[in-house]
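Colleagues,

For the teaching module next term, I've prepared a clean inverse folding example: a structure given as tokens, and then the sequence designed for it. I'd like students to try predicting residues themselves before seeing the answer, so please don't circulate the second half yet.
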């Protein structure tokens, strides 16, 4: 039997809520701790995930990758134009690969309109066909997208099976999460896709902040069991990874440095909860 990767898009229609951080950390834990063959597809022209993962590669002994998105010779943009995605795959560390993006990918919406004028379905099917070989190679695929209703997010919704929604404990993020889910349901009805919310991650909550607590309780009431039990609290180490890449430092006693350990532990728990939710949805291990 051919392998079919579990494919996740991580979303919210508000920026700065932790989407890219979640893609980066879940993909790392999937590859490093769960030993799953994992791919990240960066569909955001800002290329922040591409930069962080390239820096991560350097931290783990792979110094061959550029540390800026515009340094990649083959990105998702070249793959779309050349109809060849395999040449755009870069290895980050064992079991973890990346298809990067950079600012040139900002031409993607216009390119799709020009190639398939007036027919969004053909645009999505074009991307689906491009991505299809990847699903036979990998166990898991994570897709990072901009926080907007756009050709990028639409393409990701069309090719993904599961949605992970990020919910920062702020009023605008709560609304952004609900807008994302509402739009997802509209998209499913419009295009007949199979897409399920596999988990909503409460992100960067301050334990002692009364507003954060109110938003968290409101989210629990709205989303029930869809909201993960694991809460990603505000951690300086996660912010540091944006500039340093992901690290997993071992101290002189042979133990993981405590701040790295805490950052990784929480996302291992998130990953395990996502797995549990997926199994409940599908009945598959």
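(Answer key — instructors only)
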């Amino acid at each position: 039997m051919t392998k079919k990767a579990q494919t996740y898009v991580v979303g919210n229609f508000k920026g700065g809520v932790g989407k890219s951080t979640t893609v980066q950390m879940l993909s790392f834990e999937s590859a490093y701790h769960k030993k799953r063959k994992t791919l990240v597809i960066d569909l955001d022209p800002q290329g922040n995930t591409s930069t962080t993962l390239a820096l991560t590669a350097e931290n783990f002994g792979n110094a061959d990758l550029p540390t800026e998105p515009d340094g990649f010779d083959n990105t998702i943009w070249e793959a779309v134009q050349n109809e060849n995605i395999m040449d755009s795959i870069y290895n980050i560390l064992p079991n973890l690969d990346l298809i990067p993006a950079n600012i040139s990918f900002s031409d993607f919406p216009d390119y799709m309109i020009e190639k398939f004028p007036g027919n969004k379905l053909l645009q999505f099917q074009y991307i689906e066909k491009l991505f299809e070989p990847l699903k036979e190679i990998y166990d898991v695929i994570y897709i990072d997208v901009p926080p907007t209703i756009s050709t990028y997010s639409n393409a990701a919704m069309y090719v993904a099976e599961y949605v992970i929604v990020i919910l920062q404990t702020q009023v605008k993020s709560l609304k952004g999460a609900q807008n994302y889910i509402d739009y997802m349901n509209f998209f499913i009805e419009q295009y007949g896709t199979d897409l399920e919310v596999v988990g909503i991650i409460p992100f960067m909550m301050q334990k002692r902040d009364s507003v954060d607590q109110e938003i968290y309780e409101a989210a629990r009431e709205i989303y029930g069991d869809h909201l993960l039990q694991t809460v990603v609290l505000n951690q300086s180490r996660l912010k540091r990874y944006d500039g340093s890449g992901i690290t997993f430092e071992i101290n002189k006693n042979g133990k993981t440095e405590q701040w790295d350990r805490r950052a990784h532990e929480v996302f291992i728990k998130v990953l395990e909860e996502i797995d549990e939710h997926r199994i409940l949805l599908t009945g598959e291990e």
